[in-house]
Design brief:
By secondary structure, this protein is an alpha+beta fold. The protein folds into two domains: 58 residues, no CATH class; 278 residues, q2cbj1_9rhob like domain (Jelly Rolls). The chain has 13 helices and 15 strands. An eight-stranded antiparallel β-sheet has the order 3-11-8-13-7-6-4-5. Strands 10-9-12 form a three-stranded antiparallel β-sheet, with helices on one face. A two-stranded antiparallel ribbon has the order 1-2. A hairpin with a 2-residue loop joins strand 1 and strand 2. Helix 2 crosses helix 3 and helix 5 packs across helix 10.
């Protein structure tokens, strides 16, 4: 039976509504499971299967994702790392439990002064020497992608993104991609082997007075994967005027997004509406010096605050329990950091979203 057939059956309206939702859910599960098989065989996720995942999230308030995440964790339990020491500190089992607890309760955890001034400055300098994709709302109307170096004194858009393959060639990025503390916190929260499923390095500029939707400057929730965690790393000092990352505490939890918002679909939301629902006490605006790292479950409502002056360089890592979803593969042209090469050989699933140049891991 499908939804069209159901309309012709004489039933009380309440029962009809329940059955209609049940039939819809069955169809979405069917599309999701078919897409999962396609992904398993080809590495590609059919768009209709990803859409089915989004619809299941909205229909169940996140319970479908929770169930799938538990299954993935059973099939791919976390790696046993020899050390949990890195940029987040020398983490004990108690530290990991505390961080996991805060992430589960609040949806975020902030780590201050994790990276040195010199480390951050090297990434600033290298990013300014790279061709970036020019993004922002203006890019939506362009027929072709535009690339240019970011000029800090004369930006022509709200957002510039270093190309993926250039980004993964930076030694500093490879150092962080093989940092045991970042990996341990991620897989501890996911309950499964983590995968670097998306990496970005972006300059945000004070370019216009209104929020830029394409630069993620309006509240939204993410659902590109089944389960994931993101690290937002400040490489420049971030004040209230220079685009702090913002989050609504607790909105990542299952059932936290009300039906009225879920029914609107996968869209951006006005600040006033989000704060009306959740209250100002739940709003978090992360101000901090360069080197600050924010771990976050971006299933909750978040955004980048529009810049009033200056600019911001942000490095973001997405670690997921599976690459099912939006495709963001990265090419590794060189091994710049020995530990990164060692980890890539030792923990293949962790870097399963990377394409390594021929013979690179055999050296």
């Amino acid at each position: 039976m499908n939804v069209k057939t159901l309309r012709r059956v004489p039933l009380p309206s309440a029962l009809r509504q329940v059955l209609r939702g049940f039939v819809r859910s069955l169809n979405w599960w069917r599309l999701f499971l078919w897409g999962s098989l396609v992904h398993q065989v080809t590495g590609e996720t059919p768009k209709v299967a990803h859409l089915a995942l989004v619809n299941l999230f909205m229909e169940t308030g996140g319970r479908a994702n929770d169930f799938l995440a538990r299954v993935i964790g059973l099939v791919h339990p976390p790696y046993r790392l020899p050390s949990v020491s890195g940029v987040l500190g020398d983490l004990s089992a108690g530290d990991l439990k505390r961080i996991q607890g805060q992430l589960k309760t609040d949806g975020y955890c902030v780590f201050e002064e994790c990276l040195s001034e010199k480390f951050c400055e090297r990434l600033v300098r290298q990013s300014l020497e790279c061709e970036c994709e020019v993004l922002g709302d203006e890019a939506v109307s362009r027929p072709e992608k535009q690339f240019a170096r970011y000029n800090r004194s004369a930006p022509v858009s709200s957002l510039y993104s270093v190309t993926r393959d250039d980004l993964t060639d930076f030694a500093e990025v490879q150092e962080l991609m093989s940092d045991p503390s970042l990996i341990a916190v991620a897989q501890n929260y996911l309950g499964a082997k983590s995968i670097f499923s998306g990496i970005s390095l972006t300059w945000s500029a004070a370019f216009k007075d209104t929020p830029d939707a394409n630069a993620a400057q309006e509240f939204h929730w993410d659902l590109e994967r089944i389960r994931w965690i993101r690290y937002f790393i400040y490489l420049t000092d971030v004040t209230a005027d220079s685009g702090p990352h913002c989050f609504v505490k607790g909105t990542h939890r299952t059932g936290a997004i009300p039906e009225e918002l879920l029914n609107l679909g996968y869209v951006r939301h006005r600040d006033e509406r989000i704060l009306e629902i959740y209250g100002n006490d739940a709003y978090r605006e992360f101000i901090g010096p360069r080197g600050t790292i924010i771990a976050e479950d971006s299933r909750g409502f978040h955004k980048g605050k529009p810049l009033r002056k200056g600019d911001r360089l942000l490095l973001a890592f997405e670690l997921s329990s599976t690459t099912f979803g939006v495709k963001k593969r990265h090419l590794i042209r060189n091994i710049r950091v020995p530990r990164f090469g060692e980890f890539a050989r030792k923990y293949p699933r962790l870097y399963g979203n990377f394409d390594f140049a021929t013979g690179l891991l055999n050296k």
